[in-house]
Structures are given as structure tokens and as C-alpha cells.
Amino acid sequence: MNNRDQFRAKHPLKLTESKAGAKPLSSGDKEADKARVDELANRIAACQDIFYAERRRKLLVILQGMDTSGKDGTVRGVFGRLDPLGVRCVAFRAPTIDEREHDYLWRVHREVPAQGQLVVFNRSHYEDVLYPAVHGLIDGKECARRYQQICDFERMLSETGTVILKFFLHISKEEQRQRLQARLDDPDKHWKVDLNDLKEREHWDAYRSFYQKAIDKTDTDVAPWYVIPSDSKTHRNLAIASIVVETLDAMKLAYPPANPEYLKIKVT
What we know:
Elements: H1 3-7, H2 17-20, H3 30-54, E1 58-65, H4 71-79, E2 87-91, H5 97-100, H6 106-109, E3 117-122, H7 127-134, H8 140-159, E4 162-170, H9 173-185, H10 195-201, H11 204-218, E5 225-229, H12 233-250
Helix pairs in contact: 3-12, 4-12, 7-11
């Protein structure tokens, strides 16, 4: 079984606390696992050079998860070695006034990758189902409509050349408590504190329920969901990096054909 199969969402999805702490790829040696993450991150960076040179492929990586699940850490640990020329990271926050005056996918569509680009979404269009559903701003019928609209949107991206990888960073409620408390206890981490995260934590069960529904409804062959155990930051990065490398390897990337005329040119 490859890593993509191992972490592919199972249906019906059950996000149990115990699964958040699983480490199926771990060697049992944390330092060895970190070294493996570094190796894979460097391979991604090497592939990206060819990816950018080809200028014909597009890769979209979507990171979703509860607060403190490690979306920022994944960007740094897995994608931090990429050349800024061919990669973008987009962090979606609460919609602006201008964005609210358009359909909810408008701000997302304009950020998808162009040819030769790898784009990472730190949160995404899924926030436009999850947050309003949890807070009762949309009903079940509207949720169903948005799930279908998202599937249609992602299918359109796939049919026009975008490879899509969607990662749900699965942490336990206890692990989130520890991470939030660590931020509060360390003055140097107070810049990370958002008191709204504490309020959203009160809706933990509702978020988990709606994540299960959203993943079940939008997991497709062209835009698959991968559920990544994320209580361990190192294992989280190891799993995601492994899947990204497998995906890039499957593309059989190659530099564009050489121009024989260039070999005759001598620069004076």
C-alpha cells in the first residue's frame, strides 16, 4: 500500500481521538523521522524546479484542520524550501467587504495555480461551509448545495489541468488544549494567541461533525481527501511530504527538450 492509499479518507469518516495520535510512518526514532522529512522536503524542492520549467502543470495543496492543527507548521516544514518563483501560499481569513459582495468561491478561484505553479491554501473554500454551518448561519439544504458546488468547482479545476491534494490535519481535543496553553504560558508566543480560538474550541464537537460530513461529501477521485494524524508535528510533516512526493513522482516530470542550436552558441 502506498502512502496515498494509506491516508485516503475512509467512508463514512469517523474522526476519533485515538486516530489523531497514530504514527504509521514513524521509524520510532524522532530524529530519524525529522531527517526523513528534510530529505522529502528537498525532493519536493528539486521536483518543483522541473515543475516550474515545464510550465504545463498545476498543483493545488489544501490544508484544513482545527485551530492549532499545524497548517502553518506544515507550510514551513514541508514547503519551506521551495523557490518563491513557482510557489505561493494563500491564507484565507474572514472575507472582506468586497469578497462578501461576490459568491463565496470568487476569492478562491482567483488564487488557484497558474501553469508551472504549486499553490498551498492555508484554509480554503471549506471554511465557507464549516464556519457558517457550525454557527447556524446556513441550513442543511444550503450545506448540501455548497458541497455540490465545491465538487463541481474542483472537478473543473482538475479537468483544466490542476492536480488537487486535500489534507485534513487531525488533532485530538487534548492536544489542542496543550498547544493553546503553551501559547498562553510563553510570552514569546503571545503573538500567536487569538482569543477567538478559545471561543471556537467550545464548538469542538460541532466542527468535528461537520468536518466528517464535508470530507464525506467532497472526497472524489479528482480531488481526494487525506486524513493526517497530527498530534505529532514530525509525523504530520512526514505523512504529507510523503504523499506530495508520491504525487510528483507519478507525474513523471521532465525538463523541456534541449534546443540543439543553443549548444552551438559561444558567449564572448
